[in-house]
Amino acid sequence: MKTKRKLAVCAGGLLLAVYWFLTVEITGASPANFLIIRDLTQSANISLVPFRDLADVLGTGDRANILRQIGGNVLLFAPMGFLVPAFWPGWRKCIRTVGLGLAMSLFIETCQLFTWRASTTDDLILNTLGAACGWLCYRLAAYVLPALRERAKRPEWTPVLVMLSVWAAYTLWECWLIGARWVGC
Q1: Deepest of 67, 72, 88, 115, by most Cβ within 10 A of its Cβ?
Q2: pTM for the complete prediction?
């Protein structure tokens, strides 16, 4: 691997790790929540009917809440939709990047089943839309910057491994913090 390419992969990995840490922190997607919440009947807030929550939010007429709920979910996954294809040529096909966005959003929504947060189909849809918007931004950047047009036959696993490693480290850190609180440290 050329030195420039290695440097780009390292920079991309670092940016993706920071982005994913912030995403996990914002969404509270950690299995450490199993240790906090013991009564799932009191914590699970699930909405599986597509567009029901969106209709409820839009029906309020509260522009700030609409922007926070819809815009926030779309913007949350746009960086992933941009970063992954920008640094890893194997992820430059739309279906791959948007599929990764869908998978990681489903991962977060599943983790949120065990928190005070809601786990909704609409969040899954909006997060996936955000990954698609990020991919479109990547395509615009690739139009201007020819270096972003290089293609690879298969996607590398690096972005997935970075995101899962960050999530695992975050979870271990939270477990340690929870344990320290229980022990009285």
Answers
A1: 88
A2: 0.85
